[in-house]
Amino acid sequence: MASTEDLKSALLRAARQNQFLEVVDRDEAERRFRQHLRMAPLGAERIPLAAALGRVLAADVVSQVDVPGFDRSNVDGFAVRADDTAGASGDQPRLLRLNAEVLTPGMQPSAEVAEGTATVVTTGGMVPRGADAVLMVEYSELRDDQSEPSPQQANSGLAGDPGPQIEVHRAIVPGEAIAPAGGDIALGETVLRAGTLLSSREIGVLAAVGLAEVEVWRKPRVAILSTGDELIAPGQKMRPGAVFDSNGAILTAAVEELGGIAVPLGIARDDETEMESLLRKALASDVVLLSGGTSKGAGDLAARVVGRLTDPGIVVHGVALKPGKPICLAVSGGKPVVILPGFPTSAIFTFHEFVAPVIRAFAGMPPERRETVRATLPMRIGSERGRTEYVMVSLVEREDSSLHPSRPTTGLPGTPSVAAYPISKGSGAVTSFGQADGFFSIPAQAEMLPAGSEVEVSIIGARHRPADLVFIGSHCAGLDALIGKLSAEGFKVKALNVGSTAGLAAAKRGECDVAGIHLMDPASGEYNRPFVSEDLELVPGYRRMQGIVFRPGDARFEGRSAEEAITALKSEPDSAVNPCVMVNRNAGSGTRILIDRVLGGARPPGYSRQARSHNAVAAAVAQGLADWGVAARSVARPYGLGFLPLQAEQYDFVVPKARLAKIPVQRFLALLGDPEMRAALEL
Fold first, then answer.
1. CA-based nearest residue to 635, from 546, 566, 554
2. Could you give the residue ranges of the DSSP H alpha helices within 317-459?
3. Which pTM does this prediction carry?
């Protein structure tokens, strides 16, 4: 057991915050990092053509052959002399004698096409000497009788037994239906340039010019090491205080997407010797990525271990960014060594900002060109002065818009027709980057952007098709079930859980197809209808029960009604030794309005802590972070919580009338009216 002095020393070490060397802005960090790197491909290698998909050409490809290598027929028909068809028509056909061979692909002709003759040729067959056109079989008719020879046959000495003949019903011109030798690719022609990313189309070209191997840039090998005692590998049993290592999986996939070879090294514990050993192993690769262990604090060892590298070693530790301030950039012997922040959103964002361009350059790929879209913020957003903040957003189209860059609305010229909803889950969230369509920056000196601000959103990755159906509003497990059914039918659905009030406002602005709401009018006690304007259609949803969730066995709730429990909570003195702590809901949500009504102005301990969904409330109570909260009955059972019914409420949907005729909206309404689905939704 540790002594009191040992414990005191450990606490003092943990309290020290001296890790950051110097916080610099993003551009200065990039400059310092890249000045020690050679932003160029690492070297070329020859690989089989079958393995070339997704690789980058290291040299121009010059064809050593003609493609096609011979005059090739483009149709099934007859190789002829065009002059022999002059004047031919259905009423006055010309007769040609057939030569005694049939030219199929791969067969070399043995007979010349003389005047008054023709040779049968199929698509892809070699055109014989003497022929300068191919007559489609549709423009001919076979004759196998002993007809008198045609004038051209008589003139050419073919007046004997003519044998099989064809009637030519249409005149053709020289070159018709023939692909000439070298007409597609000529000998000596450059067919692909260095730097070309090879897709199936380019691989087809390489095969057409006869290449079995191709010279490409070598893929950079990227070592990936996650750090921290709190990490466990996916698939292992969860333990209290642990988190699954998502960064390792995210970074491995991101490296492969960029054309690198990921070298996963697993998880390094917070042990200096182990981490140093793994770092030496990682330096055998071209790039080294660590995640975690870069923030201030004695428990973060990665920065100290990397700090021992030289030539030149650490060049940046701390960038004035949010998310991503703790990033550590180092170079050793021309190899980038980067410690990404441990939080997933921070890690993947800083990876794409600082590391992805390096991997692309090492792999011979061109710099990424980011598309931007002008958008409007539908809500106010605060920021921390002194750091450039990057805000992940989900984009939704307004009425009569199409997510095209800088397309103005039809109503106000120059006003963006896209709304950018911030995904405010924090840098520790795994889903923020994955759910975002893009991001915009808030300048370091700005403290907030007001609602209605115009922002320039950088699109993340390739532009995907817009959602067929956009839900904005209150979260509900029943809505999740409806969305699941629609997704299974092939509809692309986007759902933003922002609360009833914000969802209703989004519907009024034409930013969504459907908004889920449960708002009670205090004056009448009626749900939802009093809040719906004339341009919105109220669609009846379903009833659900809201109530108090608590851990089973808590005597403050067990065996009581919700009203009795609330009364006791309101009368609890502020000086209670063991206060009963609540977890609240976000302002503007229907549940928050219900909570404020039943509390009647009381502010129990925990009132200021806000959760954004019913599941988040249940999780906080189940984990002991709070003792009670208000949530839908549907979340109590999965979390093993007790439930005291508080109020049945109506969860309805509002649809902008201008969007009612949309096929996805109609399908949603039909699904909502399905008897089996309605029975399942009555929670």
1. 546
2. 344-350, 356-362, 431-435
3. 0.76
CA 109 centroid distance within chain:
55
Could you say which DSSP state residue 200 is in? H
Which runs of consecutive H residues, i.e. helices, occur in 464-541?
Answer: 477-488, 500-508
Residue 366, judged by CB atoms within 10 A of its CB (0-12, 13-18, 19+), counts as exposed
Which parts of 489-589 fold into alpha helices (H)?
500-508, 562-571
Of residues 428, 404, 434, 431, the one with CA closest to residue 416:
404
Burial label, 485 (beta-carbon count in 10 A; 0-12, 13-18, 19+): middle
Mean pLDDT, the chain cut into blocks of 10 residues (683 residues total):
60 49 88 97 96 95 95 97 95 95 96 96 97 96 68 50 86 96 94 95 96 97 95 91 92 94 95 94 97 59 92 94 92 96 90 95 90 90 87 82 39 63 67 80 90 91 76 89 93 90 93 93 90 95 94 95 93 78 91 92 93 92 96 93 94 95 95 89 66
Question: Can you tell me the distance from the alpha carbon of 525 to that of 522, in angstroms, rounded to the nearest whole number?
Answer: 5
Burial class for 296, CB neighbours closer than 10 Å (0-12, 13-18, 19+):
middle
Q: Give the separation between CA 100 and CA 112, rounded to whole angstroms.
A: 11
Question: Cα–Cα distances in Å, from 470 out to 22, 395, 486, 615?
Answer: 44, 10, 12, 21
d(CA 36, CA 46): 29
Task: Pinpoint the alpha helices (H) of 19-78.
Answer: 26-34
